[in-house]
Amino acid sequence: MRDRESNYSAASIIEFCQFARAHGLAAGVQQTLAALEAVRAIGECDPEEFALTLRTALTSSKEEWDRFLQLFDAFWNSSGEKAQPAREGEVAAGLNRGQRRAGSQTLSRESAAVDASAEGEGKTVSGASAERKLQRMDFSQVPLDDLASLEELSLRLFRRMSLRLSRRLKSKETADRVNLRRTIRRSIPRGGDPIVLAFQGRKTAERRLVIFLDISGSMNAHSLFLVRFAYALHKYCKRVATFLFSTEVVEITDELRTADLPGVLRRLSEKAAGWAGGTKIGESLEDFRRRHARRLLSPNTVFLIMSDGWDTGEPEILAAQVRAISKRVQKLIWLNPLLGLKEYAPVTRGMAAALPYVDIFAPAHNLESLLALERLL
Amino acid sequence: MLGYVTDRALGTAVYLATKMHKPLLIEGHAGLGKTEVAKVLAAMLGTSLIRLQCYEGLDVNSAVYEWNYQKQLLAIKVQEKTDQTVREKEQHIFSKEFLLERPLLQSIQAAEASPVLLIDEIDRADEAFEAFLLELLSDFQISVPELGTIKAKHVPYVILTSNRTRELSDALKRRCFYHWIDYPDFEKELRIVRTRLAGIEDGLGTEVVRFVQATRQLNLGKPPGVTETLDCALSAMTLGKHRLDVQTVEETLGCVSKSMEDTLKIKAAGIERLLSQ
To answer: What is the percent of chain A where pLDDT is above 90?
Structure first.
């Protein structure tokens, strides 16, 4: 099928879909076919409409939607053979020159990386073995260059994990089956005929997750990744609440629900920088309990506390609080980045005091350990 | 013309979805007119709109069909004394007369023309329902064991909306065209206000839009959508105001802010300052 402009031939569209896939869009064969059909259905169109058509067919989330026009530009404009179509409307308005140029530059660097690994050089971080290496690296030791790849990798893997979790965190629905016993009872006054049917009980309540994250100085390198972890859980499970603590307790559930992860992280780093002084885990837990326990803690809740246990508060308070919380919830999980170190033993008084009341004590120092949580939740 | 202001992207998406009979998934924050799209489409095409409102725990019974058990039991009782054979009685009990048709079944039974099927807030339903929906969207037929398979004579135009409270399954997303509705820019929102509230004064309309746009920069828990803008404008008009001053805003703040925290944030940012932006 051909259009007036030979630039928009079926072959080039397919090539563009492959290009988009290489840059992170999930569009598969089904969507490529849909794109081809859509272009045919639109018929003659100007470049803007062409871009809009492809965008509707090939994207499937806000993130992909936002990036699409940049990719479109990079593909159809960077290869010299395509003529510069007259630009009107939102396609041009959306991208000013500088952004477009910057976008194309990043993309060409990325596509160079993709090419390199395709040729089997394998030095770039996008190779599978390099990925696994990144997964095992302690967050505090990731070199600056690899930080971006680790972030991208973690987002991707957390997303998949959350999808799986969101299926499990829901309890099984009890089918609306007829409760025979109660039906028969009700039929007695009606001469034995089951006119009124009685049904089985209601669904049990959905499980809830409460995350309590230490962002004091000692947790610095790890906490940003742990916030990403919490963010991913928020996006895909509905009943998650997240709190940050150091000397005070701040709820960030609503902030994490917005889709703007970089903004959230930036604001959190600014906020956290303002918190000086040592961590008081026990006192923070007490504060949390006083304000939120009634709303959030129930036998359906899993309480996840992420901290290295370095504490300047009273160990008795910490132990008492952990004990109180663990009695009210289904499971109390303590994630400690220090557990990743081979030589670590929980000798700080606070940690040691709280340990008996912790149901699961697990490491959280690298991507691998966080992904392993799926089993535990 | 029908009171819905749109842009080229949405128009293209709806056109493609309608022409190719493919479902269209519209995602976006609350109050931005996602549901309206279906209503307007139905009006434009002159067909009926069938709406399925999704919620947590929505199951096949509430979405597709259910037998009217009580009526069936009574009919059994009534039939006891008649001469019909068991076969005939059974066929009578399991006939359309006793079938409660819910939206999804209704949508494939339209007699004259394809209706518009709006599946609203699909993100509130669970994945089991999504899987069932996927099957329906592929074949457009429903099997009722006692009645047989019912095929659609006129395949409905399907529009799904989602508030993005959770990620939808990949299979469903692949099946649909996609459109993301974002907050409108100043000109567009002003046009919407002027279209929907025809009698509104220029000054008031501009100030309301400017105010709401300013509040959206405030990182509220529930940023106001276009619905809230229209509410605010209408309230101001109803109160007989010609301009939006601090007092009017305070009186109508409930239109724009939907929680105590948001109200505090707006007040902390200074209503006067927001009005003057």
So the answer is: 6
